[in-house]
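Researcher: For the annotation table, I need C-alpha cells for LysE family translocator. Please keep the output clean. Sequence:
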Amino acid sequence: MPVDQHLFVLFLLTTLVAMVSPGPDMLFVLGCGIRGGARAGLLATAGVATSEVVHITLAAAGLSAFFAAAPTAFTALRIVGAAYLVHLGVQAIRHRGQDRPEAAGATGMSGRRAYLRGLLTNLVNPKMVTFTIAFLPQFVDPGLGRVWLQFMILGAVFVALEFLVDGTVGLFAGRIGSWLGRRRTARRRLDVATGGVFIGLGVRLAAER
C-alpha cells in the first residue's frame, strides 16, 4: 500500500467524524435538498465534491514539488497545519450548536443551479484551500516516496466520503433537516466531538516524527 497504514486508519476515522458534524457544506446541501428536492441535494453534493477534487489536485501537485525541492519544509508545514487543526477544533467547540451563516442562501433552486453554486462557492472559498493544505499533509509520509500518489489516494477517499455523507443528507434532506432543527443538543455534541478530534489530532501530529 503506497500510504502508511496507521496514518490511513487515523485519516479515515478523523474524516468520518468531521464529515458527520454539520458544517457549511452539509448545511448548504441540506438547504438545497429541502428546497429543490433530492436531485438538487445530490447535485449540490456533486458540485462541492468537484471543487474539492480541484483543491486536492492543486495541493498534491504543488506540495509534492515543494517537498521534493525542500524536504525539511515538510516539518514546518506539518507544524503549521497541526496548529490550524487545533484552531479549527477550538472554534468548533466555541461555536457548538450554532447555525453557520455560510450555509444560508440556498433558496428554491434547480439541480443545475445547485451544482454550480456548490462548485463555485467551495472553489473560491479560501478556507477550503487552507484546510486542504493543512489537513491532507498530516497523513502523508514522505519517507514512503511518491508523495503525489499518497495525496491522490487520500484525496480520492476524502471526496468519496464527502459524497457518501453529504449525498445521503441531500437525498433525505427533509427528514434530516427536521431532525437537526429539533436536536440542538445532538448538534452541540457532534461539534464538541469534532473539535476534540481536531485538537487531539493537531497536538499528536505536531509532536510526532
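Researcher: And a one-line annotation?
Model: Confidence is low (pLDDT under 50) at residues 100-108.
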